Structure formats: C-alpha cells, structure tokens
Amino acid sequence: MAQINPSILSADFARLAEEAKAVEGADWLHVDVMDNHFVPNLTLGVPIVEALSKATDTPLDCHLMIEDADRWAPSYVEAGAGSVTFHAEAAAAPVRLAREIRAKGARASMALKPATPIEPYEDLLPELDMLLIMTVEPGFGGQAFLDIMLPKIRRTRELISKHGLELWLQVDGGVSAATIERCAEAGADVFVAGSAVYGAADPAAAVRDLRALADVATAAAPWACDH
Description:
Shape: globular
Order of helices and strands: EHEHEHEHEEHEHEHHH
Binding site for a divalent metal cation: 30, 32, 63, 172
Strand content: 15-25%
Family: Belongs to the ribulose-phosphate 3-epimerase family.
Organism: Streptomyces globisporus
Helix content: 25-40%
Oligomer: single chain
Binding site for substrate: 7, 63, 139-142, 172-174, 194-195
Radius of gyration: 16 Å
Low-confidence stretches: none
Number of helices: 9
Enzyme class: isomerase
Structural class: alpha/beta
C-alpha cells in the first residue's frame, strides 16, 4: 500500500500540534528541516521535532536539507524522529551516517537533488531503508512537479529490484492528485504531499484520496506486477 506523508512545511506553524492531529490517518508526518545554507530557506530544528514527537502518535519523517548532515542527523533520532533523511550532497560519509542513524533506532534515508544521479550510489542502497528522489529543487514548498524526474524514479526502482531490496522509494515536491499516479507508475511508494493535503478543506480526506489514487496506479504498474 502507498504511504502518504503530509509535509508540515505547508501547515500553520502557529498550530503545529493541531495540524499534526488533522492528518492522523497519514503514515508519517514529514518534517522539512532547512538551515539557510544548504538551501536558501530557514525552517525549524531539533526543539520543534522534539515537541512534535510528543504531540502526535504519527511517526516523524525528518528531511534534513542542511549542511554537515554527518554531525546533526543523529540528534534528530534522539529528538524522536522515526526516519531521518540526509542529502547525499551534504554527507561526507553516507554509509557511516546511515549506520549510525539505524543504530540509534530510526530508519535511515538518503535524498538526491534533481540534478544528482542515482547510479553512483547503487552500492550504498543496501545501507538504506528509504531513498528520496526530489521532484522539485529543495528549499521551498508549493513548487511545480518536475516531470523530468520520472525516468530517474524508474531507474531507481529498477536498481532496487535488481538487488532484491526492501527499500522504500519516496518522492517529494509537487505531489498532488494530478501527479501522484505518474510517480506511483514510475516506481515510488512513499509520497510527500504538502499543499495538496494542508491546502485542502479536509486534510485527512485528502490523505485518503491521494493514497487511493497511488494504490490504483501501483496495482497496474509493471514494476509492482513483477513482485
């Protein structure tokens, strides 16, 4: 079944606890951490993640768009994140970092910017629990989905299948009712949705609708039929 992770980047920051409760049917709550260095935007950090983890039963999926990920990523596990994603472009020792995140008890995930190819990281895939393909340039919510990322999603799914891995494939950026089926057909199974959820009149219903669209597209996708 497809997983839907609403992004609190599109939520009301003054009401984060309530916004988290509004999507309690979601699989994970996606938390975008930006440092105004790796990306040109500044959001939130460890204290907010720690507070959120106490305010919701939905597990936290922290996406670190920050420099020096090797130093900071483990502290997000300690703050309560169930999954921590670091960027390949910001990690000096990605294998060591993934192992440290796992050793602390969270799922380890690596993200790739749109221009970063997947192929150089093929041998690292067994060290990860999830790989995130950015379908917009990281840094801001509300951007238009980049269709040119669909072949990259397909290639990544092929590598996951080639190695027989139980690796989740996440997409983040411009995911909505208009784009989620294409992502699922290409091979994604975890979907970050910001404005498509929090911009809806009923965020919980939006989560259910997106999951249903993705499940139907996945059922008909060649990559899923091979399983």
